Amino acid sequence: MQISGNTILVTGGNSGIGFALARKFHKHRNRIIITGRNPDRLKQVLEDYPDWTGYECDFSDTQAITLLAEKIERNHADLNILINNAGIQVAHHFLNDPGIPENCLREMRINFDAPVRLGLHLLPVLLQADAAAIINVTSALGEVPRSIFPIYCASKAALSAYSTALRGQLAETPIRVMEWVPPLTATPMNAHRPGAKISADELAAAFLRAFHKDLQVVRPGKAALLHTIHRIWPTKAQAIIESTP
Predict the structure, then answer these.
(1) Can you give the residue ranges of every domain in the chain?
(2) Which residue is catalytic, options 49, 55, 152, 162?
(3) Model confidence over 189-241: pLDDT tens digits?
(4) Architecture of the domain delimited by 7-242
(5) Rounded CA gap, 197 and 221, in Å?
(6) How far apart are CA 100 and CA 91, in angstroms?
(7) Which of 20, 222, 46, 68 is closest to 140 using CA atoms?
(8) H-helix segments, the chain
(9) How far apart are CA 112 and CA 128, in angstroms?
(10) Total-model pTM
(11) What is the DSSP code string of 1-48?
(12) pLDDT at 94
């Protein structure tokens, strides 16, 4: 894929990994569209980057996803890259949390249902491009789950499997389907967690290199190491994840 001259939609592009990706692609002369849940943060980012376009969107709301897709189709017919990055991570304690059922459903809607819906809504736009991509940001925890984040892990595992299947369905089209698998990253979501983390900027740089090489699945840093350990010694990989602070 060419790393410049694209029109790119980054969901959750107002903070964390999404913001780092948007900045990195912007430096390579791409047109940037972002979404965000926090209107104040979204407004600040758009003030700092006035040539970006931003839309507020709650990805737990299916109607909001439909409305977002309609805006993209209407205002950005040249869109050729969708980066499904927006997500949440919630700790669940099944034995003592009475609010779990709705919390679980909301997490699945944001992490799995939303990228599927948005991608399918935007397929007609992407199919018009000479070269296009749907990029789903999953997680190393989708392969080696951590018990305190059961729904997050399940949602990322589902998105990984979906990415593989979608890649097969779209193999004869101009749309490439890529899966980006970050390790533990220094983002607001992980700010409370100690231990070594890759910076969001380092991660974005690694993903950009992989994008230029047309790599289908990308596991930077410790995500690659964990993947290798899991293939050889699954119980060891599980123990490593469970012992992570």
Answers:
(1) 7-242
(2) 152
(3) 655 655 556 888 999 999 999 999 999 999 998 999 999 999 999 999 999 99
(4) 3-Layer(aba) Sandwich (3.40)
(5) 10
(6) 10
(7) 222
(8) 16-27, 39-48, 62-75, 100-108, 114-126, 150-169, 200-212, 222-232, 234-242
(9) 25
(10) 0.94
(11) --SSS-EEEETTTTSHHHHHHHHHHHHTT-EEEEEES-HHHHHHHHHH
(12) 86
How high is the mean pLDDT of the chain? Answer: 93
Res 194: pLDDT: 53
Q: Give the whole-angstrom CA distance, residue 87 versus residue 139.
A: 11
Strand-strand pairing, 217-218 and 198-199: unpaired
**Nearest by Cα to 147 from 91, 195, 103:** 91
89-96: long-range contacts, CB 8 A cutoff, minimum separation 24: 89/149, 89/152, 89/189, 90/149, 90/151, 90/152, 91/148, 91/149, 92/148, 92/149, 92/150, 92/151, 93/148, 94/150
Question: Element (H or E) spanning 219, and its range?
Answer: none
Q: Compute the average pLDDT of residues 24-51.
A: 97
Tokens of 8: 């790119």
- CA–CA distance, 85 with 105 (Å, rounded to integer): 18
The two three-digit tokens of residue 233, written as one number: 């010694």
152 classed as catalytic: yes
